[in-house]
Write a structure and sequence with these properties.
- The chain is an alpha+beta fold.
- The chain has a domain at 51-268: Brix domain (Rossmann fold, 3-Layer(aba) Sandwich), CATH 3.40.50.10480.
- The chain contains six helices and 13 strands.
- The N and C termini lie far apart (151 Å).
Length: 312
């Protein structure tokens, strides 16, 4: 027994520094460390949040470029191949998010190679929001001249109604989880040089992305600008641009009970059908207008002109 105890004690002496090292690595410190009287971030990556960004099969190039632009804005994103699922996508997308260890998802769904729908969801428990996307402008357009560093953390700016309207509060919390880059992420940069803004205009969500350009390179330029009343800090739009029309908000992930439904939403099929019917009725409306004009002319009673037969 003494021989075995000596062997065990020898192993414990060799493994003691390894155990101490493991304990030191797994030790959970506070994210904000007090150094003197100033709180300082310790630089550790704790928010292991990941966002799955992918699309359905049949997406056109313009929509695919938009998806790639959103991927550039999210250094914590994960990729996946195109999903070929018709009808029910709830089970498939939730399983993919689980295998990829993602707790948020942006899913671009295309129908008829014309209409683009965006799902923004928190998986696997929800909620999830379905948008109709239009007025798309990608980063490659010449008007969008901004250029920020890839992986920089953004300032998320939300319009006033996002703090007042109940269903917009849910949209704000979902977008904050998706577009907010986790602090200390390995692929992110430790500074902020862009602003991502969300505005509520005409009952729709308008997305814009801006670069913060600071021209105050020296103190002399800053003093001159302050004396003239000029602002050296400007915003240059980077892109992408998009307008999102809320269709429905679900209580679960890609399904579940309906929390909000937009009563003013009209599907693209209904809009196209109305335009098609308007073309069909163009000829009939012209014939009817001509017939009405003839009837009105026959009802007019012309008075006798006494000077009409003066030269007879």
């Amino acid at each position: 027994m003494q021989q075995f105890s000596d062997i065990d004690s020898g192993r414990s002496e060799k493994q003691e520094p390894l155990l101490k090292k493991r304990k030191r690595e797994t030790k959970t410190d506070a994210e904000i460390v007090e150094v003197g009287s100033h709180p300082v971030y310790d630089g550790k990556y704790r928010n292991k949040q990941r966002c799955l960004v992918f699309c359905s099969r049949g997406i056109i190039p313009r929509y695919r470029h938009l998806m790639e632009d959103f991927r550039k804005l999210l250094p914590h994103h994960k990729k996946e191949v195109k999903l070929d699922a018709k009808g029910k996508i709830q089970q498939d997308v939730n399983e993919i998010c689980e295998t990829k260890s993602c707790n948020t998802c942006l899913f671009f769904e295309t129908r008829k190679r014309k209409d683009l729908y965006l799902w923004a969801a928190s998986t696997p428990n929800g909620p999830s929001i379905k948008f109709h996307v239009f007025n798309i402008h990608t980063m490659e357009e010449l008007k969008l001249t901004g250029n920020s560093l890839m992986g920089s953390r953004p300032i998320l700016s939300f319009d006033g109604p996002f703090d007042q309207v109940p269903h917009l509060k849910l949209v704000k919390s979902t977008f904050s989880q998706i577009f907010g880059t986790p602090r200390g992420h390995p692929k992110s940069k430790p500074f902020i040089d862009r602003i991502m803004s969300f505005h509520w205009i005409d009952e729709k969500v308008w997305i814009r992305n801006w670069q913060i350009v600071d021209d105050a390179k020296t103190k002399s330029l800053e003093k001159k600008a302050e004396y003239k009343g000029e602002d050296l800090c400007q915003l240059v739009e980077i892109g992408p641009r998009a307008v999102l029309d809320i269709i429905r908000i679900f209580g679960g992930s890609f399904g579940g009970p309906t929390l909000f439904q937009n009563p003013e939403y009209a599907s693209p099929n209904e809009i196209r059908r109305a335009a098609h019917n308007a073309k069909h009725t163009k000829y009939s409306s012209r014939v009817k207008a001509k017939k009405d004009a003839m009837e009105r002319s026959n009802k007019i009673v012309r008075e006798h002109d006494h000077l009409s037969d003066i030269f007879k």
